[in-house]
Protein backbone atom coordinates (compact mmCIF):
# COMPACT_ATOMS: atom_id res chain seq x y z
CA UNK A 1 0.00 0.00 0.00
CA UNK A 2 1.32 3.42 -0.97
CA UNK A 3 1.79 5.69 2.03
CA UNK A 4 3.17 9.23 2.08
CA UNK A 5 2.54 10.25 5.68
CA UNK A 6 5.59 9.32 7.73
CA UNK A 7 8.57 11.70 7.82
CA UNK A 8 10.48 10.03 10.64
CA UNK A 9 12.73 7.85 8.50
CA UNK A 10 13.72 10.47 5.91
CA UNK A 11 14.47 12.88 8.77
CA UNK A 12 16.76 10.30 10.39
CA UNK A 13 18.49 9.63 7.07
CA UNK A 14 19.02 13.36 6.55
CA UNK A 15 20.43 13.73 10.07
CA UNK A 16 22.93 10.93 9.41
CA UNK A 17 23.97 12.48 6.09
CA UNK A 18 24.47 15.92 7.62
CA UNK A 19 26.41 14.44 10.53
CA UNK A 20 28.64 12.50 8.12
CA UNK A 21 29.35 15.64 6.09
CA UNK A 22 30.23 17.64 9.21
CA UNK A 23 32.44 14.79 10.44
CA UNK A 24 34.34 14.74 7.15
CA UNK A 25 34.58 18.51 7.14
CA UNK A 26 35.92 18.98 10.67
CA UNK A 27 37.67 15.68 11.42
CA UNK A 28 39.10 14.50 8.10
CA UNK A 29 40.10 17.76 6.42
CA UNK A 30 42.97 19.84 7.75
CA UNK A 31 41.28 23.12 6.83
CA UNK A 32 37.46 23.06 6.69
CA UNK A 33 37.43 26.45 4.93
CA UNK A 34 38.99 24.76 1.90
CA UNK A 35 35.56 23.32 1.12
CA UNK A 36 34.49 26.79 0.02
CA UNK A 37 36.30 27.53 -3.26
CA UNK A 38 34.88 27.83 -6.78
CA UNK A 39 31.18 28.75 -7.03
CA UNK A 40 30.84 29.11 -3.26
CA UNK A 41 33.20 32.08 -3.27
CA UNK A 42 31.09 33.79 -5.93
CA UNK A 43 27.86 33.23 -3.99
CA UNK A 44 29.51 34.58 -0.86
CA UNK A 45 30.59 37.65 -2.80
CA UNK A 46 27.00 38.17 -4.02
CA UNK A 47 25.63 37.87 -0.48
CA UNK A 48 28.16 40.32 0.96
CA UNK A 49 28.52 42.82 -1.89
CA UNK A 50 25.63 42.28 -4.29
CA UNK A 51 25.89 41.83 -8.04
CA UNK A 52 28.71 43.69 -9.78
CA UNK A 53 29.98 44.08 -13.34
CA UNK A 54 33.06 46.02 -14.44
CA UNK A 55 32.24 46.01 -18.16
CA UNK A 56 34.62 43.19 -19.15
CA UNK A 57 32.75 40.16 -20.51
CA UNK A 58 35.92 38.09 -20.63
CA UNK A 59 36.66 38.43 -16.92
CA UNK A 60 34.91 36.23 -14.37
CA UNK A 61 31.95 38.15 -12.90
CA UNK A 62 29.42 37.22 -10.22
CA UNK A 63 26.55 38.24 -12.52
CA UNK A 64 26.96 34.84 -14.19
CA UNK A 65 25.30 33.22 -11.15
CA UNK A 66 21.54 33.01 -10.75
CA UNK A 67 19.97 34.86 -7.81
CA UNK A 68 17.69 32.41 -5.98
CA UNK A 69 20.21 30.64 -3.74
CA UNK A 70 22.21 33.73 -2.65
CA UNK A 71 18.92 35.55 -1.99
CA UNK A 72 17.76 32.76 0.33
CA UNK A 73 21.12 32.60 2.11
CA UNK A 74 21.23 36.40 2.50
CA UNK A 75 17.69 36.43 3.89
CA UNK A 76 18.56 33.71 6.42
CA UNK A 77 21.74 35.52 7.40
CA UNK A 78 19.79 38.72 8.08
CA UNK A 79 16.89 36.96 9.80
CA UNK A 80 19.07 34.98 12.21
CA UNK A 81 21.74 37.69 12.47
CA UNK A 82 24.52 35.31 11.45
CA UNK A 83 27.83 37.16 11.14
CA UNK A 84 29.77 34.49 9.25
CA UNK A 85 28.55 34.23 5.64
CA UNK A 86 29.90 30.69 5.19
CA UNK A 87 27.90 29.50 8.21
CA UNK A 88 24.79 31.19 6.82
CA UNK A 89 25.32 29.45 3.48
CA UNK A 90 25.77 26.06 5.15
CA UNK A 91 22.62 26.63 7.22
CA UNK A 92 20.62 27.68 4.16
CA UNK A 93 21.90 24.70 2.16
CA UNK A 94 21.06 22.29 4.99
CA UNK A 95 17.51 23.61 5.39
CA UNK A 96 16.91 23.50 1.64
CA UNK A 97 18.29 19.96 1.46
CA UNK A 98 16.09 18.85 4.34
CA UNK A 99 13.06 20.25 2.54
CA UNK A 100 14.19 18.44 -0.60
CA UNK A 101 14.41 15.11 1.24
CA UNK A 102 10.96 15.42 2.79
CA UNK A 103 9.33 16.40 -0.50
CA UNK A 104 11.28 13.76 -2.41
CA UNK A 105 10.11 11.10 0.04
CA UNK A 106 6.52 12.30 -0.01
CA UNK A 107 6.30 12.38 -3.81
CA UNK A 108 7.95 9.02 -4.46
CA UNK A 109 6.00 7.36 -1.63
CA UNK A 110 2.76 8.51 -3.21
CA UNK A 111 3.77 7.17 -6.63
CA UNK A 112 5.80 4.05 -5.82
CA UNK A 113 5.48 3.26 -2.12
CA UNK A 114 7.47 3.95 1.04
CA UNK A 115 10.25 1.43 0.49
CA UNK A 116 11.24 2.93 -2.86
CA UNK A 117 10.92 6.44 -1.39
CA UNK A 118 13.15 5.77 1.62
CA UNK A 119 15.72 3.96 -0.53
CA UNK A 120 15.81 6.84 -3.02
CA UNK A 121 16.36 9.43 -0.27
CA UNK A 122 19.17 7.34 1.27
CA UNK A 123 20.91 6.96 -2.10
CA UNK A 124 20.48 10.66 -2.86
CA UNK A 125 22.12 11.74 0.41
CA UNK A 126 24.88 9.12 0.30
CA UNK A 127 25.80 9.86 -3.32
CA UNK A 128 29.51 10.73 -3.77
CA UNK A 129 28.68 14.26 -4.93
CA UNK A 130 26.06 14.99 -2.27
CA UNK A 131 28.52 17.21 -0.38
CA UNK A 132 27.49 19.90 -2.90
CA UNK A 133 24.17 19.92 -1.03
CA UNK A 134 25.78 21.21 2.17
CA UNK A 135 28.76 23.40 1.26
CA UNK A 136 27.16 26.44 -0.37
CA UNK A 137 26.29 25.57 -3.96
CA UNK A 138 22.98 26.35 -5.70
CA UNK A 139 22.04 22.67 -6.01
CA UNK A 140 19.89 22.60 -2.80
CA UNK A 141 17.71 25.46 -4.03
CA UNK A 142 17.28 23.80 -7.41
CA UNK A 143 16.54 20.34 -6.02
CA UNK A 144 13.94 21.72 -3.60
CA UNK A 145 12.19 23.57 -6.44
CA UNK A 146 12.35 20.39 -8.52
CA UNK A 147 10.85 18.14 -5.84
CA UNK A 148 8.12 20.65 -4.99
CA UNK A 149 7.40 20.96 -8.71
CA UNK A 150 6.88 17.22 -9.10
CA UNK A 151 4.77 17.08 -5.96
CA UNK A 152 2.55 19.90 -7.23
CA UNK A 153 2.32 18.38 -10.71
CA UNK A 154 1.87 14.68 -9.93
CA UNK A 155 0.50 14.51 -6.38
CA UNK A 156 -1.56 17.58 -5.54
CA UNK A 157 -2.22 18.54 -9.21
CA UNK A 158 -1.82 22.25 -8.53
CA UNK A 159 -0.82 23.52 -11.95
CA UNK A 160 -0.32 27.15 -10.96
CA UNK A 161 2.00 26.07 -8.14
CA UNK A 162 3.92 23.78 -10.51
CA UNK A 163 4.33 26.63 -13.01
CA UNK A 164 5.57 28.95 -10.24
CA UNK A 165 8.13 26.39 -9.06
CA UNK A 166 9.34 25.76 -12.60
CA UNK A 167 9.85 29.50 -12.94
CA UNK A 168 11.76 29.66 -9.64
CA UNK A 169 13.96 26.70 -10.59
CA UNK A 170 15.28 28.70 -13.55
CA UNK A 171 16.36 31.36 -11.04
CA UNK A 172 18.33 28.73 -9.11
CA UNK A 173 20.18 27.29 -12.12
CA UNK A 174 19.83 27.86 -15.83
CA UNK A 175 19.10 24.18 -16.22
CA UNK A 176 15.77 24.97 -14.56
CA UNK A 177 14.31 25.59 -18.01
CA UNK A 178 14.11 21.79 -18.14
CA UNK A 179 11.19 21.97 -15.70
CA UNK A 180 9.50 24.60 -17.85
CA UNK A 181 9.78 22.24 -20.81
CA UNK A 182 8.52 19.32 -18.76
CA UNK A 183 5.52 21.33 -17.57
CA UNK A 184 4.61 22.15 -21.17
CA UNK A 185 4.98 18.49 -22.15
CA UNK A 186 2.67 17.52 -19.28
CA UNK A 187 0.00 19.95 -20.48
CA UNK A 188 0.42 18.77 -24.08
CA UNK A 189 0.06 15.13 -23.03
CA UNK A 190 -3.09 15.83 -21.01
CA UNK A 191 -4.48 18.04 -23.79
CA UNK A 192 -4.02 15.28 -26.37
CA UNK A 193 -5.75 12.73 -24.13
CA UNK A 194 -8.77 14.99 -23.71
CA UNK A 195 -8.74 15.99 -27.37
CA UNK A 196 -8.94 12.32 -28.37
CA UNK A 197 -12.27 12.25 -26.52
CA UNK A 198 -13.55 14.80 -29.06
CA UNK A 199 -13.75 17.53 -26.47
CA UNK A 200 -14.05 21.04 -27.94
CA UNK A 201 -11.05 23.36 -27.67
CA UNK A 202 -13.06 25.95 -25.77
CA UNK A 203 -13.89 23.44 -23.03
CA UNK A 204 -10.46 21.84 -22.80
CA UNK A 205 -9.20 22.53 -19.27
CA UNK A 206 -5.58 21.86 -20.19
CA UNK A 207 -5.61 24.50 -22.91
CA UNK A 208 -7.14 26.91 -20.42
CA UNK A 209 -4.46 25.98 -17.88
CA UNK A 210 -1.76 26.66 -20.48
CA UNK A 211 -3.16 30.12 -21.22
CA UNK A 212 -3.46 30.99 -17.51
CA UNK A 213 -0.06 29.71 -16.38
CA UNK A 214 2.14 30.50 -19.39
CA UNK A 215 3.05 34.00 -18.10
CA UNK A 216 3.89 32.51 -14.68
CA UNK A 217 6.33 30.05 -16.28
CA UNK A 218 8.52 32.87 -17.56
CA UNK A 219 7.92 35.40 -14.78
CA UNK A 220 11.11 34.49 -12.88
CA UNK A 221 13.44 34.92 -15.85
CA UNK A 222 11.52 38.03 -16.91
CA UNK A 223 12.10 39.70 -13.53
CA UNK A 224 15.77 38.69 -13.56
CA UNK A 225 16.40 40.04 -17.06
CA UNK A 226 14.52 43.24 -16.18
CA UNK A 227 16.76 43.71 -13.14
CA UNK A 228 19.87 43.23 -15.29
CA UNK A 229 18.56 45.70 -17.84
CA UNK A 230 17.84 48.36 -15.22
CA UNK A 231 21.08 47.77 -13.29
CA UNK A 232 23.57 46.99 -16.07
CA UNK A 233 21.73 47.94 -19.28
CA UNK A 234 21.98 44.37 -20.61
CA UNK A 235 19.06 41.96 -20.00
CA UNK A 236 21.11 38.91 -21.08
CA UNK A 237 24.28 39.84 -19.24
CA UNK A 238 24.32 36.65 -17.14
CA UNK A 239 24.19 34.50 -20.28
CA UNK A 240 26.79 36.56 -22.17
CA UNK A 241 29.25 36.31 -19.29
CA UNK A 242 28.64 32.59 -18.91
CA UNK A 243 29.27 32.02 -22.62
CA UNK A 244 32.57 33.93 -22.39
CA UNK A 245 33.44 32.17 -19.13
CA UNK A 246 32.94 28.65 -20.46
CA UNK A 247 34.50 29.57 -23.82
CA UNK A 248 31.53 28.23 -25.76
CA UNK A 249 30.39 30.19 -28.79
CA UNK A 250 26.83 28.92 -28.51
CA UNK A 251 25.31 28.01 -25.13
CA UNK A 252 22.67 25.77 -26.64
CA UNK A 253 23.31 23.75 -29.79
CA UNK A 254 22.28 20.42 -31.25
CA UNK A 255 24.73 20.62 -34.15
CA UNK A 256 26.47 17.38 -35.24
CA UNK A 257 29.87 18.81 -34.25
CA UNK A 258 28.63 19.66 -30.74
CA UNK A 259 27.20 16.18 -30.23
CA UNK A 260 30.35 14.58 -31.65
CA UNK A 261 32.53 16.61 -29.27
CA UNK A 262 30.38 15.56 -26.32
CA UNK A 263 30.44 11.87 -27.25
CA UNK A 264 34.21 11.86 -27.80
CA UNK A 265 34.75 13.54 -24.41
CA UNK A 266 32.49 10.97 -22.76
CA UNK A 267 34.39 8.03 -24.28
CA UNK A 268 37.74 9.54 -23.33
CA UNK A 269 36.53 10.17 -19.79
CA UNK A 270 35.28 6.60 -19.47
CA UNK A 271 38.74 5.33 -20.42
CA UNK A 272 40.32 7.56 -17.77
CA UNK A 273 37.73 6.45 -15.22
CA UNK A 274 38.48 2.79 -15.86
CA UNK A 275 42.22 3.44 -15.67
CA UNK A 276 42.33 5.70 -12.59
CA UNK A 277 39.12 4.80 -10.76
CA UNK A 278 38.44 6.93 -7.73
CA UNK A 279 41.44 9.18 -8.44
CA UNK A 280 39.53 10.82 -11.26
CA UNK A 281 36.28 12.73 -11.18
CA UNK A 282 35.70 11.10 -14.56
CA UNK A 283 34.47 8.19 -12.44
CA UNK A 284 31.17 10.07 -12.68
CA UNK A 285 30.88 8.72 -16.21
CA UNK A 286 30.76 5.18 -14.91
CA UNK A 287 27.93 6.24 -12.63
CA UNK A 288 26.23 8.02 -15.53
CA UNK A 289 26.46 4.88 -17.64
CA UNK A 290 25.06 2.80 -14.80
CA UNK A 291 22.26 5.29 -14.26
CA UNK A 292 21.22 4.93 -17.89
CA UNK A 293 20.66 1.19 -17.51
CA UNK A 294 18.96 1.61 -14.12
CA UNK A 295 16.51 4.17 -15.50
CA UNK A 296 15.89 2.00 -18.55
CA UNK A 297 15.08 -0.99 -16.35
CA UNK A 298 12.90 1.09 -14.03
CA UNK A 299 11.03 2.40 -17.07
CA UNK A 300 10.23 -1.17 -18.05
CA UNK A 301 9.08 -1.70 -14.46
CA UNK A 302 6.75 1.30 -14.89
CA UNK A 303 8.59 4.05 -13.08
CA UNK A 304 6.69 7.32 -13.49
CA UNK A 305 6.86 8.59 -17.09
CA UNK A 306 7.64 12.17 -16.11
CA UNK A 307 10.61 11.06 -14.04
CA UNK A 308 12.01 9.45 -17.19
CA UNK A 309 11.30 12.52 -19.33
CA UNK A 310 13.00 14.73 -16.75
CA UNK A 311 16.13 12.54 -16.83
CA UNK A 312 16.23 12.69 -20.64
CA UNK A 313 15.74 16.47 -20.78
CA UNK A 314 18.36 17.01 -18.08
CA UNK A 315 20.90 14.91 -19.96
CA UNK A 316 20.14 16.66 -23.26
CA UNK A 317 20.59 20.08 -21.66
CA UNK A 318 23.87 19.04 -20.06
CA UNK A 319 25.25 17.70 -23.35
CA UNK A 320 24.19 20.75 -25.34
CA UNK A 321 25.17 23.37 -22.80
CA UNK A 322 28.53 21.98 -21.68
CA UNK A 323 30.28 19.94 -24.36
CA UNK A 324 33.57 20.11 -22.43
CA UNK A 325 32.61 17.48 -19.92
CA UNK A 326 36.01 16.86 -18.30
CA UNK A 327 34.96 18.74 -15.17
CA UNK A 328 32.86 18.21 -12.03
CA UNK A 329 29.70 19.37 -13.76
CA UNK A 330 28.72 15.82 -14.67
CA UNK A 331 28.87 14.86 -11.00
CA UNK A 332 26.58 17.75 -10.17
CA UNK A 333 24.31 16.76 -13.07
CA UNK A 334 24.13 13.24 -11.61
CA UNK A 335 23.10 14.73 -8.27
CA UNK A 336 20.23 16.59 -9.96
CA UNK A 337 19.22 13.47 -11.89
CA UNK A 338 17.00 12.19 -9.08
CA UNK A 339 15.20 9.55 -11.25
CA UNK A 340 18.46 7.58 -11.01
CA UNK A 341 17.98 7.28 -7.24
CA UNK A 342 14.37 6.21 -7.78
CA UNK A 343 15.38 3.64 -10.39
CA UNK A 344 17.97 1.81 -8.27
CA UNK A 345 15.33 0.29 -5.91
CA UNK A 346 13.54 -1.15 -8.96
CA UNK A 347 16.77 -2.86 -10.04
CA UNK A 348 17.49 -4.06 -6.49
CA UNK A 349 13.99 -5.46 -6.21
CA UNK A 350 14.56 -7.52 -9.34
CA UNK A 351 18.05 -8.71 -8.41
CA UNK A 352 16.97 -9.68 -4.89
CA UNK A 353 14.14 -11.83 -6.19
CA UNK A 354 11.82 -9.54 -4.21
CA UNK A 355 13.32 -10.82 -0.96
CA UNK A 356 13.21 -7.88 1.44
CA UNK A 357 16.25 -8.98 3.45
CA UNK A 358 18.44 -9.34 0.37
CA UNK A 359 17.05 -6.01 -0.86
CA UNK A 360 18.03 -4.08 2.27
CA UNK A 361 21.47 -5.72 2.42
CA UNK A 362 22.08 -4.73 -1.20
CA UNK A 363 20.92 -1.18 -0.51
CA UNK A 364 23.19 -0.91 2.55
CA UNK A 365 26.16 -2.06 0.45
CA UNK A 366 25.49 0.61 -2.19
CA UNK A 367 25.05 3.33 0.45
CA UNK A 368 28.35 2.42 2.15
CA UNK A 369 30.07 2.31 -1.25
CA UNK A 370 28.72 5.77 -2.10
CA UNK A 371 29.73 7.21 1.28
CA UNK A 372 33.29 5.93 0.90
CA UNK A 373 33.61 7.59 -2.49
CA UNK A 374 32.05 10.75 -1.08
CA UNK A 375 35.02 11.01 1.26
CA UNK A 376 37.42 10.51 -1.67
CA UNK A 377 35.74 13.19 -3.75
CA UNK A 378 35.68 15.65 -0.85
CA UNK A 379 39.44 15.19 -0.56
CA UNK A 380 39.81 15.85 -4.31
CA UNK A 381 37.62 18.92 -3.94
CA UNK A 382 39.64 20.00 -0.91
CA UNK A 383 42.84 19.90 -2.96
CA UNK A 384 41.15 21.56 -5.98
CA UNK A 385 41.99 18.44 -7.97
CA UNK A 386 39.41 17.29 -10.50
CA UNK A 387 41.27 14.91 -12.80
CA UNK A 388 44.15 12.64 -11.88
From TrEMBL:
Its main location: endoplasmic reticulum. It comes from the Bacteria. Pathway: Glycolipid biosynthesis; glycosylphosphatidylinositol-anchor biosynthesis. Keywords: Endoplasmic reticulum, Glycosyltransferase, GPI-anchor biosynthesis, Membrane, Transferase, Transmembrane, Transmembrane helix. It is a multi-pass membrane protein. One of its GO terms (molecular function) is alpha-1,6-mannosyltransferase activity. GO terms for biological process: GPI anchor biosynthetic process. It is found in: Endoplasmic reticulum membrane. One of its GO terms (cellular component) is membrane. This is Glycosyltransferase RgtA/B/C/D-like domain-containing protein. The chain crosses the membrane at residues 7-26, 86-105, 117-139, 159-188, 209-230, 281-299, 305-321, 333-351, 357-373. InterPro entries: PIG-V/Gpi18.
Amino acid sequence: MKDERSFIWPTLVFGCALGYFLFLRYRVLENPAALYPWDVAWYRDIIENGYRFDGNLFRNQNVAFMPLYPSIAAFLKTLLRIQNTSIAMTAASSLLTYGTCLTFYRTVAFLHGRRVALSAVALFLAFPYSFFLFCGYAEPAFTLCTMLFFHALLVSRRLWMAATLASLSALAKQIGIVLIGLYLLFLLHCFCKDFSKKQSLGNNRWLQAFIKTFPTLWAGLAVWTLYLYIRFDDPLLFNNILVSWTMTTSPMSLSPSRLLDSLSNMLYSLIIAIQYGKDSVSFAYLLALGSFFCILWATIRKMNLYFVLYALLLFAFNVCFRPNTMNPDLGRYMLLNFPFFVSVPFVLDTLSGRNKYVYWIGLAFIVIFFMKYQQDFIELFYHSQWVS
